């Protein structure tokens, strides 16, 4: 095809100008022997095996277009498809885009594993501030809002007009707003949603592993010197680092499936056991109001931040979709959205019973630090069998190990991208292993240094809220350019602006609550 292009774009010489026009049969356009065809010209301009004619020769009209004649009827679609499927060669070296044979099932596994987790267990804490009515309304609005922005991201992943696949959230936002502005507004939230989430998983996973050991072994397995909390963090980190050696995002689809099953398992078991045991004696459902009106307002905003924190994973949607093959005829957003619909149906079936059932069972008595998991151990450790408690604990640990892999993948990808960009070659296996070990133990160090990180749910929710609820709306306006003052234009401007303002207010409110009520700050002293 490339040589055929040279035929038609060759300069017109006197000899070729006198040659009669020759029409090549369509069957020869895709023939492997096209380069040996007698219809091709030699270097000196003569036509092989074509005797000179004695009849007058008609001068040939020069062709101004470089497009070969045989693809002219299909030129535009063919060029679009070729441009759309052309990938950055470096993508084949990086863990997110190294394998592009994903499907809707893999998408559902990854989305479910990243979209539900430990953060959902603190939802009833928000209800203690908001009460029944506003708690349920806020949860429904947040769910619908984040599902809408998820739809926006799925359809922003690929641009047919430009032939580009935005395989990473930061790549899309930098392409939309420019590299400097994109990194300024999104770098910290995205880094926190990767490294910060992995650190939180180490803290909660290590603590729950210690609880599992105590539940299963009890007094019979007590030793003279049991493992400390820091040592349990280390055990969890070592297991996570071993699993992180799988090469790319598609290779951990099975791990994401395990993470999804365990997340659904422990969420269901916690709310089912709590509801089955009945409401605690003296439970109260009146919203908590402390101090003056300003303190109450900040408490309400902090509760909204906790609800926002329950919905995460938007920073991974483009990365998950990047593992799928895509073409103009079969775009990746079709199977991706099918997987998202299934996974978020299951997420809704977990989050709403967990929030509503947990608040009904514990009311204002639910612990603010740890939520449902802490309440289960505190109030029902003697009423529920050790099997149920152990089952719940091990599922929390397994889900933490599996979620660590998918949330750590953007960090792995970024470290390897720095190497491949500089060295112009794939990252060797031994260096890839070093990167992942370094990342795992860096998160371990942060977890030991700041063990109260998991207590900052409201603040974290406020910081990461624009990534989930605001930025996708602005990116849709910038890239898709909907009709001005039309429904999509107005909706995205409102949601985007409201999301950014809400994020700023939630951060301020969360900082005020932390300063006013205090938290158990214990640097380098995990409890």
From TrEMBL:
<keyword id="KW-0927">Auxin signaling pathway</keyword>
<keyword id="KW-0769">Symport</keyword>
<feature type="transmembrane region" description="Helical">
    <location>
        <begin position="456"/>
        <end position="477"/>
    </location>
</feature>
<feature type="region of interest" description="Disordered">
    <location>
        <begin position="1"/>
        <end position="66"/>
    </location>
</feature>
<feature type="transmembrane region" description="Helical">
    <location>
        <begin position="387"/>
        <end position="408"/>
    </location>
</feature>
<feature type="transmembrane region" description="Helical">
    <location>
        <begin position="429"/>
        <end position="450"/>
    </location>
</feature>
<feature type="transmembrane region" description="Helical">
    <location>
        <begin position="232"/>
        <end position="250"/>
    </location>
</feature>
<dbReference type="GO" id="GO:0006865">
    <property type="term" value="P:amino acid transport"/>
</dbReference>
<dbReference type="GO" id="GO:0009734">
    <property type="term" value="P:auxin-activated signaling pathway"/>
</dbReference>
<feature type="transmembrane region" description="Helical">
    <location>
        <begin position="257"/>
        <end position="280"/>
    </location>
</feature>
<feature type="transmembrane region" description="Helical">
    <location>
        <begin position="105"/>
        <end position="126"/>
    </location>
</feature>
<feature type="compositionally biased region" description="Polar residues">
    <location>
        <begin position="25"/>
        <end position="44"/>
    </location>
</feature>
<keyword id="KW-0472">Membrane</keyword>
<keyword id="KW-0029">Amino-acid transport</keyword>
<feature type="transmembrane region" description="Helical">
    <location>
        <begin position="132"/>
        <end position="154"/>
    </location>
</feature>
<keyword id="KW-1133">Transmembrane helix</keyword>
<dbReference type="InterPro" id="IPR013057">
    <property type="entry name" value="AA_transpt_TM"/>
</dbReference>
<feature type="transmembrane region" description="Helical">
    <location>
        <begin position="190"/>
        <end position="212"/>
    </location>
</feature>
<dbReference type="Pfam" id="PF01490">
    <property type="entry name" value="Aa_trans"/>
</dbReference>
<feature type="transmembrane region" description="Helical">
    <location>
        <begin position="300"/>
        <end position="318"/>
    </location>
</feature>
<comment type="function">
    <text>Carrier protein involved in proton-driven auxin influx. Mediates the formation of auxin gradient from developing leaves (site of auxin biosynthesis) to tips by contributing to the loading of auxin in vascular tissues and facilitating acropetal (base to tip) auxin transport within inner tissues of the root apex, and basipetal (tip to base) auxin transport within outer tissues of the root apex. May be involved in lateral roots and nodules formation.</text>
</comment>
<protein>
    <recommendedName>
        <fullName>Amino acid transporter transmembrane domain-containing protein</fullName>
    </recommendedName>
</protein>
<dbReference type="GO" id="GO:0012505">
    <property type="term" value="C:endomembrane system"/>
</dbReference>
<comment type="similarity">
    <text>Belongs to the amino acid/polyamine transporter 2 family. Amino acid/auxin permease (AAAP) (TC 2.A.18.1) subfamily.</text>
</comment>
<keyword id="KW-0813">Transport</keyword>
<dbReference type="GO" id="GO:0005886">
    <property type="term" value="C:plasma membrane"/>
</dbReference>
<feature type="domain" description="Amino acid transporter transmembrane">
    <location>
        <begin position="105"/>
        <end position="513"/>
    </location>
</feature>
<feature type="transmembrane region" description="Helical">
    <location>
        <begin position="489"/>
        <end position="515"/>
    </location>
</feature>
<feature type="transmembrane region" description="Helical">
    <location>
        <begin position="339"/>
        <end position="362"/>
    </location>
</feature>
<keyword id="KW-0812">Transmembrane</keyword>
<keyword id="KW-1003">Cell membrane</keyword>
<dbReference type="GO" id="GO:0015293">
    <property type="term" value="F:symporter activity"/>
</dbReference>
